[in-house]
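Incident log, entry 3
Record: Class I SAM-dependent methyltransferase (338 residues)
Problem: checksum mismatch between cached and fresh output.
Input:
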Amino acid sequence: MSDADPLSALLHALSSCPAVDGDVLFINGIYGPGVDVQSTSWHVLQYFKTEAIRWPDRAILLQDDGLGAGRYDRVLVLISKQHDASRRDLAVAARCLRSGGVLLAAGANDAGGRRIEDDLRALGFSTVSDSRYKSRVVEVRCEGGLHEDVLQNWISSGGWQPVLQEQFVSRPGLFSWDRIDVGSALLAAHITADLGGCGADFGCGYGFLSAHILNHCPGVSFLYALDVDARAVEACRRNTAFAGDRINCFWHDLTTMPPALPMLDFIVMNPPFHEGSLTHKELGRAFIRTASSCLRREGRLLMVANNHLPYEDVLGESFSTVAVTTVAQGYKVIEAIR
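Fresh output:
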């Protein structure tokens, strides 16, 4: 279990920097002590709903495309664990920094923090680094001479791209971004063509299960696809565009009740159970409770989970029938009737 705290490392470094009057960009920004959440000069690129809701709406950015080159006096980055995604974040940060501006980047030592300094040097920066809270924080100043070819390559390799023989588009940083994960493949194999009515894909990711249902279940009249990650919502929207008005993709934290959903006939889900390097069975249990509240009486829940995760008790609290239909490859497929 990691107790690294890259946010504290980043904010400690920030407290040592002179104050600036200009704009500040915080990539993957998390609110914490020392962050001026009310300041109109802070802009926050944050894809996860659970973190974005802590900031004023006016501060939140959901896309890194089109951020103003050379606009920001200071750019802060909490790096992603996935290397292509973190390199894109650093390249976007470098592009946005004005001449003379300061970039601070931090990450946990066991989640990519040790490579930040090498990556920033590869972009052409001279670096100053510090280690605290089991994290690495690196400071650079924009003084020209960046390696534009490296910067552009990292922005491209961390962005939208075709995957799975160009059947889908996705991007690094999403769950199993360039492949079909074992659990989702197993669940898809057990979704029968007679699935029908109005349903939802909880934690839709880039849209593999949503696309499978819309392609193979003609009785499905409408599908809601929900995810906590705004990038996943956009990916799912792109990957199910063929379905037209049969689907609505939206951004939501499924540990809480979604607004304005009708009572559903079915829900499919491959709930997350990791948060960083930690395993949190409570994430899946919260998904199950939300699903129960969204299903009509006799509605169906079809889910897949790692075989060792103990979900049967919470399923038994809210569903009249619970059956493990398949156990394979370390996963179990569960069908529950409301």
